[in-house]
Amino acid sequence: MKRSYLGEFEEIVLLTVAVMEGGAYGVAITHEISEQTGRAVRLNQVHAALERLEDKGMLKSEMGEPTAERGGRRKRLFTVTAYGRRTLQEIQEVRVSFWARLLNPFKPATSL
Amino acid sequence: MKPPHLADRLLKFFCAPGRLEEVQGDLHEEFQYQLRQVGERRARERYWWDVLGFILSFALKRKSIEYSTTHLTNPTMIQNYFKIAWRNLWRKKAFSVINIAGLAVGLATCLLIVLFVQDELSYDRYNANADRIFRMTLQGSIGGKELDIAYAPAPAGPAIQHDYPGVEAFTRLEEQGTFVIKYGNERFKEERVVFTDSSFFTIFSIPLLKGNRLTVLTEPNTVVLTQSTARKYFGTQNPVGKSLTMGTMGLFRVTGVCQDVPSNSHFHYDFFGSYRSLHAREKWMSSGANTYFLLRKDYSIDKLAAQSPQIVRKYLGPEVQEFLGMSYDEYLRKGDRFEFQFQPITDLHLKSDREGELEPNSDEKYVYIFSAIAVFILLLACINFMNLSTAGSANRAKEVGIRKVLGSVQQQLIRQFLAESLLITFLALLVACGLVIAVLPTFNQLATKTFGLDTLLNVRMITYTLAGCLVVGLLAGSYPAFFLSSFKPVSVLKGKLASGVRSGWLRNTLVTIQFVVSIGMIIGTLVVHQQLRFIQNKKVGFDKEQVLILHDTYVLGNKLNAFKAELAKQSQVASVSLAGYLPAGNSNSGFDGVRDVNAPAETSPYRLKTYRIDEQYLPTLGIRLALGRNFSKAFSGDSAAVLVNEATVRQFGWKNPIGQRIATVGDGSPGDRHTYTVVGVIRDFHFESMHQHIAPLIMVYGGDGYQLALRIRTENLPAFLKTVEQKWKAETDNPFSYSFLSERFNRMYESEQRIGELFGIFAGLAVFIACLGLFGLAAFTTLQRTKEIGVRKVLGASVASIVALLSKDFLRLVFVAILIATPIGWYAMKEWLADFAYRIDLEWWVFGLAGLLAVAVALLTVSFQSIKAALVNPVRSLRSE
C-alpha cells in the first residue's frame, strides 16, 4: 500500500475538517482542535498543515464570504477530498487491525 | 479595535500575495476573538506572536519548496567563476600581462613602503612603559637668538625627581665622543659610547643578560656592554668582572651584558658607562645631558610641564645673574626666556629635530610623503585595471548578453567579474612578493633599514597583505563588474553597445589622474635633484677638494706636534692644521656667550658658535680673510686675539671691526671668562648645513688635536695614503682612519640624496604603470577602429594623418593633466624648499620639461600601437564584414 504519509497533527487537522462539514477554515479549525484536544494550537501551524494537506490532494478549498470581523476579507473554506477520506479510513483500518491483535488489552491501572 | 499595524505590514512583506487575504483574515478574526477573551493587551501580544510564527514558517518553507538556485557560497558556482576568469585571462594574454605587471609593481611598491612606514612608526615603542617616558628639553632665547636644545641641564634630573613625587625615575645619557677601547691585544675605535645613570635599564626595556638591573651602573668606572660587543672583545669568555681601558678615562670594570639596542630606537650604543664616571657638574647653564623621566602611572606630564616656570626660576634664576650679569627679572624684561618642555619618547624619532639630538632623527613629513606615494602608485595600478576592463567590455558585451538570456541575474554576473579581478590581484600579489624579495637588499640600502624576510613573513603582515589585496581586488573590480553586468541583453545582442563603452568619460578622467600623478612626481624628482646639485656646487666659502682628514689624532698625545711637523715636511702636503672643529662631518662643537665690551649699554650676551684653530687652519681649508690678518706665531699676544666671520660683524653692528673687543662668559667660573680683541674678519663660509643661514662664528687661537686636516697636492693618492699610514703606525698601534672633506660634506645631505633617489625611482614606477595602462588602452581603441582606419586609408589618408588621429585623444588628456599637475607640483615643491635657507628658485622650465617628458612618453606609447594600425593593409581590415 502506497500513500502519502500523514503526521499525527495533519491527521487531526484532516479529521477536524471532515467533522466540520463545509464550515472549516483557519480560525474555526484552530478553535475546534484546541477545544477537543486541549492543546495550545497556533494559527500558523494549522495553516501550514492545511497547505500541506492541500498539496497532497487530501483537501480542497474555495473562497467563502467576507465578514466584518475579518476586516472584509474572505475565508478559505476547506473540504476533504475523496482521496483524503480514503486515507483517513485506511489509517483507521490499520489501527483497528492492530488493536484487534492485541492479546492482552490494556486495563485501567489498579492501585494495589 | 484594530490589530497592530506594524505587524500587518510585516506580514504583508513576507507573505505570498496569493495567500495574504485568508491569512490576514484569519489573524484578524482571531484577534477579535482574543480581544473578547483576554483583553486588548494580551490580544495584541498574541497577534504579534502569531504573525512572527507565520513569518517564520514562510521563511522555512520557502527554502524547501522553491526551486533550487545558486547561492553566493555555492562551491560549484565559485569554482565556475574562477574557471571562466582563468579562461578569459588566458585568451587575452597581452592584456592580462599588462594588468598583472602593473598591479604587481604597484603592490610591491606598496608593500615596501608599508614596511618602511611601519618601522618608522614603531620607534621606541619597544619600551614597556613607552607611554610614561618623557625627555626633558630646553627652549628659550638668549640675546634674541632662539634656543631649542634636545638635552637638559645635567643637575636637572636628580633635582626634579627630588622635588616632584610624581616622577618615578630619571636617567641621563651623555656622550663623550669616540674612544679607543683596549682589552688585551684587542683594540678598537668605538663611537657608540654613552654614560648613563644606574636607572637606565629600569626605564628603557633593554634586557640585561648578565648583571643586576638595579646595581650594574651604580659605581664609577663600571660599564655594561651589548651582547655583540661583548662577543667582539671577549669571545665566549664571561666579560663580567673583566676590565677594559676606555680611551683616556682609564680602566672600566664590566658589570653587565645587555641585549643589543633594537634598531627602532632613537639611540644605538654599544657601551653604557656609569654616569658617576664623569666629573660632577653643578651648574645648570653650562652642562647638558639627554634627560629622561619615568612618571608614575597616575601623574600626567601636563602637571610637570606646568611647573616649568617655577623650575626655571628656582634653579636657572640665580645662575642668570652669574653668567649673564643681570637678574632673572631683568632678563625676562629684555624679552628673553627659558622654558623646559617634555617630549613623549615615542615622538622623538619623527617629531624632534633639536640641537644636540643623540642621532639625526627622521621626519614625520617623509612618513606622510611615502604613504601618499604608496597610495598613489596603487591607485595608478587600480586605474589601469579598471580602464582595461571597461575598454575591453565591447568584447565581453555579447557574453553578458548570452548569459543574461540564459538566466543569469545581475548579481551572478557581478560576482563573476569580481572573481576575475580577485584572480588577477592575487596573481599580481604572487609576482609582487617575488619582486619584493628581489629588491629588498637594494631597498634596505636606500632606506638605511635592515628588513629581512622575517619582517615580511609574520602573521600580521600576511593578514594585512591578504586583506589589502582583497580590498584592492574588489575596489578595482567593482566598477567593471557593475558596468558590464548592467548591459541590456536585447540591445547588446543586436550589436548596439551602451553609449558609455565608446565615450568613456570616466576612463578619460582616470587616465588624466594617472598622468597628473606621474607629472607631479617627475616635477618632484627634477626639483629635488636640482636643489641637491645646487647645494653641492654652491660656493661654500671654503675649498673642500683635496683636503684629507686624519681621525682621532688626539691618541698621539704629546707626540702629535712632532707627527704634524713630519707630515708638513712631505712634498705632497701643502699645509697641516689641527682641525678638531670642521664645517662638515665629525667635529667638536662649542658655544659661548659673547658680549661686546665697548657696547654703550649693558646687553645680554649672544650665544655664538666657537672654533679653536691654529694659524694653519685658514690656508688648509681655503677660508679667505676679508679684513685684518690671520693668527700668527709671530704675535705673542694672539692668545687674546679672535677672528670673527662677517655674520658676527653684522650681528654686533660694527662699522670698523678690527680692534673691537669682545668678552666671553665661559662656564661661569671667573677663570673661564676671557676678553678678546678682533684681529681679522673672515669671509662667511657654510659651517652648518644649507638648511640654516650662516650664523655668527668666532675663532680663537689654540687648535684642537682631535683630528688633523691636510691640504694635499698629489696625483698618486694611494701611495701618499700608504706613506701617512706607515708614519702613523710608527707612532701608535691605534687604528688608522681618514676621510676626505668633500666626502664628509656630501654626506651631510645624505638624507636629501636618499629622498631624491627614492623620488626618482617612484616617479619612474608611476610613469611605467601609467604607460602600461595607456599602452593597453591605445591597443583597444585602435582595435575598435580597425575598420574606420581601413576606410580612411582606402579614401587616401596618409599614415601620418592616421597616427595623428589616433594619438590626438590621448595627448589631449596628457595636456589637461599637465595643467592640473603644474600648480600642485609648484605648491608642494615650494613647501619642500622652504626647509632650506639656501635654495633654488622654481623655474618654469622645470614644469615645461616635466610636461614635455610626459607628452613624449605618452606619444611613444600610443604611437607604437597607432603606427602599427596605420600600416596595416586596408584589404586585411576590410576583408570580412
From TrEMBL, chain A:
InterPro entries: Tscrpt_reg_PadR_N, WH-like_DNA-bd_sf, WH_DNA-bd_sf. Transmembrane segments: none annotated. Residues 20-90 form the Transcription regulator PadR N-terminal domain. This is PadR family transcriptional regulator. Pfam families: PadR. It comes from Larkinella humicola.
TrEMBL record, chain B:
GO terms for cellular component: plasma membrane. It is found in: Cell membrane. The chain crosses the membrane at residues 97-117, 366-388, 422-441, 461-484, 505-528, 758-783, 810-829, 844-864. Its main location: membrane. It is a multi-pass membrane protein. Residues 96-307, 604-688 form the MacB-like periplasmic core domain. This is FtsX-like permease family protein. The lineage of its organism: Bacteria, Pseudomonadati, Bacteroidota, Cytophagia, Cytophagales.
